[in-house]
Design goal:
Blueprint (H helix, E strand, L loop, with lengths): L2 H33 L9 E3 L6 E3 L1 E4 L6 H4 L2 H15 L3 E3 L7 H8 L9 E7 L6 H12 L6 E7 L4 H4 L1 H12 L6 E5 L2 H7 L7 E5 L21 H13 L3 E5 L10 H12 L6 E5 L3 H15 L2
Length: about 300
């Protein structure tokens, strides 16, 4: 090999190796871009829209069949279930004034828990009380808490709820000013009230029914329980609310307990975990195994 050819070969070699080095530095960067994506889990703390309230992504409901399922556990059984949920990282508990004795039962179950480490949502029925502020105080006393993280108008069923509930909405706003509730909103039962809520700005939180089968959901024809809902239409309304900054909490994920097939429950979780418009969900549990299943399914599909 002549000196000139040798010189050229060395120059070409340096060019080739420099290019290879550049390639090596780029590829790991691309690989790490995906690895740096935050891992999402069932027990993450997530913000409810623009409410400023953070809850565990999976919450424990206490109102299965108006609380009958949880009441039948007895106080000790319910205490153990709440303890198990807390041990798994669930810190969000959903209850309501009309769930029988569930306010008192929940209060006893969380008596020795640091209040600042858990989130409690309750609901007050509309049109039932002459002095709703007094009833909010009663509810706080029953649960044994100075404040609720969120308080909802319970079970609105007509499209004109935005006009009918103005007095109660004003009282909830006053309760927020007094800091005895941190956020307020509405629990929606029906496609008409869902439609009204999608264009109405009051409140911070919406509790909505959602699952992949449209079971026990909000049918556009008004038959919200007897017939499957138009899931796409429901998701569209929920998305509008979420886009406006409302915190969205999904309920009826497992069809109010009617999804007895584990594979169907898994598909239900998969569907809702794929919805960017749902911040958190609540499920009414009765056994530790149900908690484990929900967490496993949520973690599986949140990782995708």
């Amino acid at each position: 090999m002549t000196p000139q050819k040798d010189k050229l070969s060395r120059r070409n070699f340096l060019k080739i190796t420099a290019g290879a080095a550049a390639t090596v530095t780029v590829i790991p960067g691309l690989l790490h871009a995906g690895a740096d994506k935050p891992k999402r889990t069932a027990t993450d703390k997530v913000l409810l829209g623009q409410s400023g309230i953070s809850v565990s992504r999976l919450g424990m409901g206490t109102g299965s069949h108006s609380g009958r399922v949880q009441r039948e556990l007895g106080q000790e059984g319910f205490n153990n279930l709440v303890k198990y949920a807390l041990e798994q990282g669930i810190t969000f508990f959903d209850t309501a004034d009309n769930y029988g004795e569930m306010h008192e039962m929940l209060g006893k179950a969380i008596k020795n828990v640091d209040r600042e480490k858990i989130q409690i949502q309750s609901k007050l029925s509309w049109g039932k009380f002459d002095d709703p502020m007094r009833e909010i105080d009663r509810c706080r006393k029953e649960v044994g808490t100075d404040y609720f993280d969120s308080m909802l108008i319970h079970c609105v069923t007509s499209g004109d709820w935005v006009e009918k509930q103005k007095k109660l909405m004003d009282i909830f706003d006053e309760a927020k000013e007094k800091q005895i509730i941190r956020a307020c909103g509405v629990s929606i039962h029906g496609f008409e009230p869902l439609t009204a809520a999608s264009t109405f700005n009051w409140g911070d939180v919406r509790l909505v029914r959602i699952n992949h089968k449209g079971s026990v959901m909000d049918n556009p024809d008004g038959a919200s329980w007897e017939q499957p809902a138009d899931v796409d239409a429901v998701v569209q309304k929920i998305s509008l609310m979420h886009q406006s900054g409302k915190g969205i909490i999904g309920m009826k994920l497992v069809g109010d307990g009617t999804f007895t097939d584990a594979a169907v429950r898994e598909q239900a979780i998969k569907f809702v975990m794929g919805l960017a418009c749902v911040d958190a969900v609540v499920i009414g549990f009765k056994t530790p195994a149900e908690i484990d299943e929900a967490i496993t399914n949520m973690n599986k599909y949140l990782a995708m």
